[in-house]
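Researcher: Please predict.
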Amino acid sequence: MIYGARNISELYMPHATPLIRFGVIADPQYAPLPPNLALNRYFANSLDKLDDAIATFNAQDLAFAVTLGDLIDRGYDNFDAVLARYTLLRHEKILLPGNHDFLVAPERLSQVHEKFSMPAAYHHFSRNGIRFVVIDGNEESLFSTPEGDPRRDRAAGRLKALTRAAAVNAQSWNGGVSEQQFAWLSRVLAEAAAAGEKVVVMGHYPLYPENEHNLWDWQRLVDLFERSGNVLAYLNGHNHAGNLGRHGSTWYVNFKGMVDTERENAFALAEVFADRLVITGFGREEGRVLPF
């Protein structure tokens, strides 16, 4: 493995034709607010950082660019300023929400996925023989649904149980997937295996290593990926410090938060080869070669 590289030439290995290349952004978390100095988050500066990332992506030959949640810090009206930046992106954009994207008025909660132009809250698509799966870790949470919604009630019960068990991720700003979504994910992985497709899963919440930011049911998904045997990587944001782990045959890559620091950016290019995942980091994001 090679860590700390910042460009493709530093990461060169044989078999240099990738199966697919795409851009990755995590946690812009824009809002026209003063910075949170305690957390080192500069919300208003994310628009310029997005411009920088999109200009970099536009200079590349990419299949798409994905943003792994938290486009905004709060406030439904702030989506417009962020999404205006993405109109300049010449590639397909894939957006998925994080916990902060639901910090909007209750009557707006049901409109978030539509605002992101998502085909569904969780979905999948194939590109160049690789199945990409987008999961929804906000599905059962205390913030994505209004009072009285059964999913919110289930989330309250789940968080209470995790708190009793002293789980490190028993946090109100995390969430989990429903039994229905878990069954769907199991079917999609099985279908991909039957079709001979390798899989890259993308979500907002970390799954591995264990961390206070992890999806509530992280262990269940990690076990599923291990049983499936065809998940090359899981990509996420949420933990702005970033993280990296490997369990079974799956790499777990937590990208750093764009909103952090006053000026230094954080985004990446990802290339999937037959034998490895290559990440070229920009700004604070690390470059890595992760062999399969």
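Model: The chain has six helices and 13 strands.
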